[in-house]
Amino acid sequence: MKIHHLGVAPDRLKDKRVLVVLDDVDHLMQLDAMAKETWWFGPGSRIITTTQDNKLLKAHKIDHISKVEFPSFDEAFEILICINAFGQKSPYDGFESLAWEVTQLSGKLPLELRVMGSYFKGMPKHEWTRTLPRL
């Protein structure tokens, strides 16, 4: 893997407050290339890094680590699917099993729950039934 160093970062950003988001980092080189030193960015800047490997964060001497949990199945069903699909905390009568199935298919991923809930919003029951096998 080859990552080109962003040599302009210290010169152009050192006086600016910035938000840097590094998503799905899986190599230390990625952190080094994008945000090796905190002085590259102005006061008040924030760097948010997502990774499945906390060892990378520790190797880069990152000490403020937060773990984000997935919602429970009930939370996923109630809050994300029902609110996005039905605009309320529970499904319409006759839609319960269909809403549970959508929740299971989403893997409890919040974005997936929102997207699927929005996709099914306003859709009649027969369309849910017809669409679910294709997901």
Automatic annotation (TrEMBL):
GO MF terms, alphabetically ordered: ADP binding
Source superkingdom: Eukaryota
GO biological process, alphabetically ordered: defense response
Signal sequence extent: none
Protein name: Putative disease resistance protein
NB-ARC domain location: 13-80
Lineage per the UniProt record: Eukaryota, Viridiplantae, Streptophyta, Embryophyta, Tracheophyta
InterPro entries the UniProt entry points to: Disease_R_plants, NB-ARC, P-loop_NTPase
